[in-house]
Each structure stands twice: as C-alpha cells, then as structure tokens.
Amino acid sequence: MHRCLMALALVCAAAAQAAPPARVEIVYELLHNDGAVADVTHLLEHDGKSYRLSEHWEGRGLYALLGEVQRSSRGRITSGGLRPLEYVDERPRRDTAMAKFAWEENTLTQKFHGPPRTQPLPPHAQDRLSFLFAPAFRVPGTRPIEYHVADGKGVSHYVFDVAGRERLKLPAGEFDALRLVMRKDQPGDKGTEIWLDPARSYLPLRVLVVQKDGTRVDQVAARITVAQ
After folding, report:
1. pTM of this prediction?
2. How many whole angstroms separate alpha carbon 119 and alpha carbon 107?
3. What CA–CA distance (Å, rounded) separates 11 from 29?
4. Using an 8 Å Cβ cutoff, are 129 and 53 in contact?
5. DSSP 8-state code for residue 214
C-alpha cells in the first residue's frame, strides 16, 4: 500500500509539473554558424483545455530584407498531451502552408501548392510549433519520444532519445537542462538536439540543427517571461 501511494504521488507530481504557466513568451536568438541572423519570439497561451502558439521571426541586418515570418498553432490539451487542430505558416513571397488535424475523423489535411491533400492521421501527430512545447504538457520519461510532425507540405518522423541532464549557459541564464537527441534514420541525415528546462515545465531552451553540409542553425533562449 505504501509503495502504491508513493507511485501515485509521483504521478500526480509529474502531472502538476507538466502544466506550464498560462502565458509564456520566449525570445530566442537565431544563430547561423554562430552569427546572429534573427530574433524569434514564441508565445504560448492556454487555459488548461485549449492552447494557442504563435511564432514571429524578425531578421537582423541583411536578413531583415527577407521579411517577417509568422507561424501559429492552436488545439486542445488532453490527458495525453497536446492535440493540434490547425497549423499555419505565412512567409513573404510564398504560398501559405496549412495543416488541419481532425482527430475524430482520424485525418490530416495539408495545403501548400495546389489543392488540399488528405491522409490518415499518423500516430503521435504534432506540427512544427506544437512538438517543441509538447513535453511541457506531458513530462518526458527515460523512453524515446516519437512525433510525426506536419507542416502543410509533408510529414516528418522524429524520434528523440533522452540524453540526460546538462548544464546550459544561454543569454537567458544558466539552466540544468534536459537534452534530447534526434535519431538519424539514414546516413547523412541532419542532426537535431533540443534542450528543455525541467524547472520551468520543460519549456524549450535551445534547438540546434546541424545540416548535412555541416551548417549549424542554433536557436537559443535570450529572454523568458512567464505569467500565471
């Protein structure tokens, strides 16, 4: 009985820790091979039942000429974590990309060029914004984390291994972060690593992508603002 009560307490504590504040704004510096090229702002708002995520990119220097990027995701919060309903990606001089998740019908509809395309909803479905914040609503354990990520143009399959804690120094401060490392399915695949903040509901602190040619794209938290 004592062990059962302890296990139940741990589960309840994990569930409580999984819920982030009602409003979180994270401003990142986007680095291209260590040179800052843009400021990226993520805004998460939720009421415990539904959520809305927005992302705004603003280039620096010559990159400002490329225009601003706006992405958004909205959906529901369930006992299993985030369930996105709609994802929109708007960029200058390019068609808007959209993805709609119909969980009751078990379908995913995407639109970029041409007419909408509908397919069965893949397991562990997320979009390009929601998968970064999904651990904030479902605490990572020690087992691999799997996502099928839709962006309007297609679906990518990601599997992240939990690589343990790591001390991380960023413009936003120093953190005892949890590091996730994406598995490479094929030789030459790009490498992706994500660092989360366990002390702040596993919010994303850093995203590092190393492309096939060795180019590094690093998104690091510069400022974190939370409100209950």
Report:
1. 0.88
2. 6
3. 35
4. yes
5. S
Instruction: Report pLDDT digits (tens) over 107-163.
Output: 999 999 999 999 999 999 999 999 999 999 999 999 999 999 999 999 999 999 999
Residue 85's nearest CA partner among 50, 44, 123, 113 is: 50
Distance CA 71, CA 69 (A): 7
Helix ranges restricted to H, 59-173: 130-133
Residue 227: closest CA among 22, 45, 49: 22
Torsion sign, CA atoms 217, 218, 224, 228: positive
What residues does 86 pair with on adjacent strands?
74, 100
The pLDDT tens digits for 176-197 are 999 999 998 755 567 899 999 9
DSSP run (H or E) holding 144: none
The domains of the chain, with CATH numbers, are: 19-227 (2.50.20)
Q: Is 67 left (phi over 0), alpha (psi -120 to 50) or beta?
A: left
Nearest CA to 95 out of 109, 112, 111 is that of 112
Nearest residue to 150 via CA among 193, 109, 208, 198: 109
3-class DSSP state of 206: strand
